[in-house]
Amino acid sequence: MTDPSLPPEQEQPLDASPSDPQDKGSTPAADSLQRKLEELQKAADQYKDQLLRKAAEFENFKRRSEADFGNIIRNANESLVSSLLPILDDLTRSLKAGTERQDFDSFFRGVELIHAKLLKSLEGQGLAAFDSVGKPFDVAYHDALMQVPRSDVPPHTVVEEVERGYKFNERVLRHARVVVSAAPEGDGEEATTPRATETPETRTDA
């Protein structure tokens, strides 16, 4: 039924409504954008999963490394201790023989052999003694215990070794404790304490 008051061209169906672009359905551009969003979301989920897996693997690797390092530290001296066991056996036998037979010469020779065996074992681990007597005093290698006036050697020369010095793998392990020469009194040169009389606590090892 039509309204007679309206011109024919203005008549509209009763069920007609204004056109809405959103009612026309999705466009190809919108479909493409939706597919890209879905692909990006899928890629992000994959990367997240990979990241979580790598983080878990790294944590496991870290724990294994810490455990391995702890084992290395605990067993670092195993070979050294193992090489010293035969020397300990020799000492035990020497002490036992010394109580059974009062033979000083034999006991002394046995101790000499044990000393040589011990030194050889330590040298095999990288230990090396260094000579000091007759050499100029060097703070990198020596600790001066005292000075004595000497006219036969230049001042600040090592004239006596009280305790031998050692290197371990070319690094000074223990400084030699030595007696150092000083100029004789009255020769015009003042006897001064060598610079190496620094204490081990204040000295930087070479």
What does this structure look like?
This protein is α+β, with helices and mostly antiparallel strands and 206 residues long. Among the domains are: 78-125; 128-197, Head domain of nucleotide exchange factor GrpE (Nucleotide Exchange Factor Grpe, Chain A, domain 2, Roll), CATH 2.30.22. The chain is 44% helix and 16% strand. It has helices at residues 28-74, 78-100, 104-124; strands at residues 127-130, 142-149, 158-163, 165-168, 171-174, 176-182. The strands form 2 sheets. Strands 1-4-5 form a 3-stranded antiparallel beta sheet. A 3-stranded mixed beta sheet has the order 2-6-3, with no helix packed on it. Strand 4 and strand 5 (171-174) form a beta hairpin. Helix 2 (78-100) runs antiparallel to helix 3 (104-124). It is elongated, with a radius of gyration of 45 Å. Mean pLDDT is 81; it is low at 196-206.
Write the layout of secondary structure elements.
Layout: H1 28-74, H2 78-100, H3 104-124, E1 127-130, E2 142-149, E3 158-163, E4 165-168, E5 171-174, E6 176-182
Parallel strand pairs: 2-6
Antiparallel strand pairs: 1-4, 3-6, 4-5
Helix pairs in contact: 2-3
